[in-house]
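Q: Convert this sequence to structure tokens.
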Amino acid sequence: MKKAFVCSFICRGGILGGALYIDEVSVTYKTNKLTVDKAYRNLVLPRDEIAELAWKWIVFPVASFRMKDGGEHRFIIFNKRRFNKYYSYN
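A:
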């Protein structure tokens, strides 16, 4: 079952609006902005590659997905409570 969440991706150039989709195998960020690098238009984070999900509060709740390969992806997620309801870290 896929669930969608309005979010903003935090990258070097600023923030980029889009959506996060959660399903059984991955968390996927999607945006339709053509001026963005293709790697960020459909960013798939496989659940088995996510080492940790950490939260900070910087005006809005910020989720940091730390990957097993050392990478990190940060998102402002506008409904943290609902997101936590559907995302369960293994």
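The mean pLDDT is 90.
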